[in-house]
Amino acid sequence: MTKQHIVIGLSGGVDSAVSALLLKQQGHQVTGLFMKNWEDDDDDEYCSTRQDFIDAAAAADVIGIDFEAVNFAAEYKDRVFADFLREYSAGRTPNPDVLCNAEIKFKAFLDHAVRMGADRIATGHYARVREIEGRFELLRGLDAGKDQSYFLHRLTQAQLSRAVFPVGHLQKSEVRERARSAGLPNHAKKDSTGICFIGERPFREFLQRYLPKAPGDMVTPEGRLVGRHEGLMYYTIGQRQGLGIGGTRNGSQDPWFVADKDLPGNRLIVVQGHDHPLLLKRDLRAIDAAWAAGSAPADGAFGAKTRYRQGDAACTLRSPSGSEFGLAFDAPQWAVTPGQSAVLYDGEICLGGGIIA
C-alpha cells in the first residue's frame, strides 16, 4: 500500500490501538478518531465511554498520532437504536452491531474521515479485504476464534474499497504481545462484550426504559399454561435462563426452552428438552439481504452462520432475488432466531447475508 492518510477508529481497546500502531510503523499518516455513539446515560455505572476515551487518548499519545473525538450519537439513535427498538417490538432479536458497522463505522465515520482528507479508514476488526481486478472480497480474520467478518457482511463494495483491517492477519495473542512490547497502556485491557449501548447492565432492565411491559401466558405447543412471561421482547428463541418455570411434564426433568412467539396472542411457546423438534430448523428465509461481494451469488452449496458464535453449517442457497433468499441446511440448525443475521460464506470469503425472517 502506498503511503496514505488513514483515519482509524480508536475505541480504547487493544485491537484498534495495535491497528493504529501497525499503520504508523508502515509509514502512513495516521489520525485516531474516538466515536461517541451513545449519551443517554453517560454517568451510569455500566457506561464505559469516559474510560474508553481516556484509554484511546493514552494509546494515541504513546503511538505518536493525532487524536480527536467525534459525536455520532444522533446518527446512532436514528439509524441503529430506532431499528433495534422496532425489531424488539415486533418480537424479533436484532443484532445492532451489524447495523452499527454498516451505518455508523463505515458510513457516518467514513464520511467524516473523507471530510478530514482521509484516503481510507481503519478499524480493529478481525477481518481482511482482498482486491481482485477491481472487486473487493471480505475475508475472515485469520484468528478463527476472533473472526468478525460476520458483523461486517453488510458492507458495500464502496465501503470495502476504503477499509483497512490491520490486525486481520494476526492472532489475538500476537496483538496483545505487540501492544505490550510497544508499551501501550491498554495491552491487557479486557475485551468489551455485549451490545455497546447496554454495556454490562441487565438487559431486561435496560429495555424496560423504552418498551412497556406486556405480560402474557407461557404455554406448551399444545396450549397448556405453564407460567407467565413479562413481555415477548424480553425473550429470545433458544433461551433457557430466566423463564421462571421449573417442574416437570410427564415426570420429565428436562429444562425448558423458548421455542416460538405467538405475537397476536401475546403467548410465549416453551418446550422441554434441548433437542425438541420445534428448536430445530432445516430451512430459513432471510430478508433485507446485503451482499459484500457486490451481488448475490448463484444458487449452490455454501456455508452459513445463523449466529456469530458457531461454525459454518453446510447449506444450499435458494432463489436469491431482490432482497430475499432461502437457505436449506444439510443438518437441522438449533434455535434459528428471527432478527439475527444469516451470513453466507464461500470458504474464507464472506459473501453477505440477510435478516432471518
Write up what this structure looks like.
This protein has 357 residues and is of the alpha/beta class. The protein folds into 3 domains: 5-181, HUPs (Rossmann fold), CATH 3.40.50; 211-274, Adenine nucleotide alpha hydrolases-like domains (SH3 type barrels, Roll), CATH 2.30.30; 280-356, Elongation Factor Tu (Ef-tu), domain 3, CATH 2.40.30. 24% of the residues lie in helices and 31% in strands. It is built from 7 helices and 17 strands. It has helices at residues 14-25, 49-63, 73-89, 96-115, 157-162, 172-181, 203-208; strands at residues 5-9, 29-36, 66-71, 120-122, 127-132, 135-140, 163-164, 216-219, 225-229, 256-262, 267-272, 280-290, 300-305, 313-321, 324-334, 341-346, 349-356. Strands 12-15-14-13-16-17 form a 6-stranded antiparallel β-barrel. Helix 1 packs across helix 6. It is globular and about 65 Å long. The mean pLDDT is 93.
Sheet with most strands: strand arrangement: 12-15-14-13-16-17
What is the fold-level CATH name, i.e. the topology of the largest domain? Rossmann fold
CATH top level of the largest domain is Alpha Beta
Q: What's the total number of strands?
A: 17
> Helicity range of the residues?
10-25%
CATH superfamily of the largest domain: HUPs
Structural class comes to alpha/beta
Overall residue-averaged pLDDT value = 93
Number of domains: 3
Order of SSEs, N→C? Answer: EHEHEHHEEEHEHHEEEEEEEEEE
CATH architectural designation of the largest domain: 3-Layer(aba) Sandwich
Strand percentage lies at 25-35%
**Per the principal axes of the C-alpha atoms, what is the gross shape?**
globular
Distance between the termini: 41 Å
Rg calc: 22 Å
Largest sheet: 6 strands, antiparallel, barrel
Task: Count every helix, treating DSSP H or I runs of 4 or more residues as helices.
Answer: 7
In the predicted model, the low-confidence regions spanning at least 5 consecutive residues are none
